[in-house]
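Bench log. Compound arrived from synthesis this morning; before running ITC I wanted a structural hypothesis for how heme C sits in the protein. Inputs:
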Amino acid sequence: MGTGYSSDRKISGSLAGGIGSRAIAMVLAAGFLSVQAAMATDLPEGDASRGEKLFSACAGCHQVGEGAQNKVGPHLDGLIGRTAGSVAGFKYSSAMRAAGEAGMTWTAANIAEYLEKPREFIPGNRMSYRGMPRAKDRADLVSWLKQISQETPGQAGATAEVVAAPGFADVVMQIEGDPEYGEYLAGECVTCHQASGHADGIPSIVGLPKKYFLTALFEYKNNVRTNEVMKLRVQNLTNEELAALAAYFENLEPQ
Ligand code: HEC
Ligand code: HEC
């Protein structure tokens, strides 16, 4: 990849003046980004083939490559150079949308910084991912994302579609949940999961696709997932209650 990270240089260069610095100043003034987020540094060229394997940490939530669609997270096609929070049909947090509205675009360097500490890079974003501590891992992963992103230019407008996967959540998938009843039941959930959708140590469940949400809850019911707190929370919920909760959280707007 002889071209290097030209998109980073464009961003760093624009810090000197013009629209770029105004946009970044707006972002900082609004308090959405930490200072290091604006000072994108060059990233060493990574090992893309190793990066492809590291993507397994993301694949539960993100699709990338031809035909990628929004899942729990937005699709990552055409990511380098893409405006933050801009994929049509995906429910972003207002923090992520605001970063994009203030002019933030994804570069190899700022993706790596986001992945190191997602919660600190854009406070209030709703990606429930702990972070990737090793710089080498981040460089390798971003290098692969950069490659795949060039191969498959953005498919803005790709919409979320529930992938048919047979399993125990199917019965409840058929039930039309009552979101108002769901809101009532959710009172018990939002003591831990923030209604704003912010992922502050406890995963964000706002805007989760129904299929993912129900599968997760069934997995706690059936001991596939072992978290004791959640197992206790779901063991007495009826199918109607689960469907209502799924309907409520799926349509809740992240803040
Ligand atoms: C538990 C699910 C989950 C995991 C795991 C996850 N993400 Fe995310 N990701 C999200 C969500 C949800 C958002 C939207 C955040 C928001 O709106 O605040 C997001 C946003 C992003 C964005 C910003 C996209 C945009 O359109 O602005 C990037 C880049 C990203 N994730 C990359 C990754 C990478 C790379 C990994 C793996 C190291 C990863 N994510 C792991 C759920 C996840
Ligand atoms: C006492 C705190 C607490 C309460 C109350 C609580 N949860 Fe959770 N929830 C958690 C924790 C912690 C996890 C992560 C557990 C794990 O690692 O498996 C979790 C995980 C989840 C997940 C999986 C998220 C993912 O990204 O895979 C869903 C869905 C969920 N909870 C829904 C609910 C619903 C619906 C309620 C209300 C009926 C609820 N929770 C009540 C603490 C709580």
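What the model suggests: Residues 1-40, 156-167 have pLDDT under 50 and may be disordered. The chain has two domains: 6-151, 170-251.
ITC booked for Thursday regardless.
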